[in-house]
Request: fold
Amino acid sequence: MNLPSSTPTSATAVSAASSTEVCQECGSQDSWVIHPARLRGALSFFCTHCLLRNHPKSFCPSCLAVYDPSPPRHYQRVPCSDCGSYTHIECAGDATSPPYLCPPCRNPTSFSFFRPLVGADGVHRMDKPLSEAFLCAAKISALSMKRAVVVAKLEAELKGRECVAAKKRAREALEDVLKIDEKERAATPKVNEASGDQEQKPKQSLGSGELKKQ
Ligand SMILES: [Zn+2]
Ligand SMILES: [Zn+2]
Ligand SMILES: [Zn+2]
Reply:
């Protein structure tokens, strides 16, 4: 399978450099292999290899089957003692006794889930294992974005409910203020009509009352 070239011409180099889709892990700018994913509450972009390394529990690192919606049961899987990924027990072969290391953890410096083959003409070519890794990452990305949409909807609903509650509290507070205002007006109905002398009289009598107590 031939794929769009990302490096051989200056035109593509410019488009890659101006692209905002850069793998946040390794800095890869091959926009055609950058996947969006929601990780630790934030939207991020990853190349195929880094996306798979950041979602160790979402797929089998040996056969690249995506676990949707959940990983196999504990007796059907072998956990990696390093990254926590789950390998199908049948994919792990004889190496199932702990501590088990999954393929990328066995060779962390040299292993890559996705190393595109670049021909002499600068054109990327994808073989079956690469296309399987790409498909696996694309599926995990799609699941992650689907979950992000659900989370965003829930957050919007929560904000909507908070907004309704805040409006209700504001209305109640306003009603309380109006009631207090009404009471004050009812308690002192003659103040506005009364002369300055009448206004001072209650204060004077209160003052004399206080004096008597002392
Ligand atoms: Zn990367
Ligand atoms: Zn497997
Ligand atoms: Zn591992």
